[in-house]
Amino acid sequence: MIKAVIFDMDGLLVDSEHIGLDVMAECGRKQGVEMTLEDIKKTLGSTYAFSIDLYTRLYPQMDPRQLFIDFENSMHEMAEAGKIPLKKGAKELLEALKERNIPRAVGSSSPSTVVQLYLSKVGVLDDFQTLVTGDLGLPSKPEPDMFLTAARRLGVAPEDCLVLEDSVNGIKAGRNAGMQVGMVPDVLPYREELRPYCDHVLPDLAAVIPLLDA
To answer: Considering the entire predicted model, what is its pTM?
Structure first.
């Protein structure tokens, strides 16, 4: 039985991942560095601290902290302009959860300021009881700490929580937390080797609704 739902944000609740890949590559070019798409994808679902460490090793000629300053500024402008929309089925799922009095949390590797900006701009910030974000100093996904913290704040046992994710790091974090896991693929497609980490593979967030009454 599902007693709480924990959402990732980027690529799951808001359609930011496709945009973010292009923005990150452009921010690298500002420093004269041609970052590969595959390298950028390695950071999906990870905290900025993890990403900075990875980029430092992959591109030692680049200043990764300036990279993220430029990235955040560009994405902030896009969010303010309404260019980072809510993902398909999100509104319907959130309404269904409220109707059933099922508590909701966000467990995102993005910092709190970014999470609050994106969710407020698409009108769903107040739909969540708690936000667990990447600036809390918790270990990056695929470690389970972010999701376990969210469950603890909601007062729900991990095994009664459903994690919804689009990234490999995210679904592994959900499985490592001992939670039910639903993958809604976005930039990264579902692959058969991900089966051990997924209880459900769903085309969009509205497809989660039948699971609530199962």
So the answer is: 0.89
